[in-house]
Amino acid sequence: MSETPAAELSATALCRAIRLRREFFDRDPVTVASQLLGKLLVRREGRKLLAGRIVEAEAYLGAEDPAAHAYSGRTARNAVLFGPPGHAYVYFIYGNHYCTNVSCMPEGDGGGVLLRALQPVTARTAMATLRGIELSQPPTLAQLRQLTSGPGRLSEALAITRERDNGKDFTATRSDLWIAEDGFQAERIAATKRIGVTKAADRALRFVIAGNPFVSAIRVP
Question: What is the helix (H) or strand (E) element at residue 116, kind and residue range?
Answer without folding.
Answer: strand 112-122
